[in-house]
Amino acid sequence: MSELTNLPNIGKVLNQQLSKIDITTESELKKFGSKRVFLKLKSLNAPDRFYCIQMLYSLEGAIENVAYTELSNDKKAELLKFFNENK
To answer: TfoX C-terminal domain spans which residues (predicted)?
Structure first.
């Protein structure tokens, strides 16, 4: 099991996707940030349903070490704007 699966919101499937873009540690995830990692994941061209706003929230939540549902409303609004600009 990866170190990443110890973080909130990172399950088996997301962990596998992250390993495909060479993100295998918490420090790498934090270094690149949720937005950049999300764009790198999108470049894998997995089914569109995989790239949802919840994934972006999950990445940010993992970086902040909280469940994605606990992100601030301001952070969610920022991420939603980014998501809509990068569909």
So the answer is: 2-82
What is d(CA 87, CA 80) in angstroms, rounded to the nearest whole number? 11
3-85 CATH choice from 3.40.1390.20, 1.10.150.20, 1.25.40.10, 3.30.70.100: 1.10.150.20
Average pLDDT score, the chain: 92
Residue 44, pLDDT score: 85
Which residues make Cβ contacts (< 8 Å) with residue 69, sequence separation at least 6?
A: 61
pLDDT in tens, 38-62: 999 998 877 666 789 999 999 999 9
The answer to whether the CB of 40 falls within 8 A of the CB of 21 is yes
For residue 15, what are the CA distances in angstroms to 33, 75, 78? 15, 23, 24
Other Cβ atoms within 10 Å of 71 Cβ, number: 18
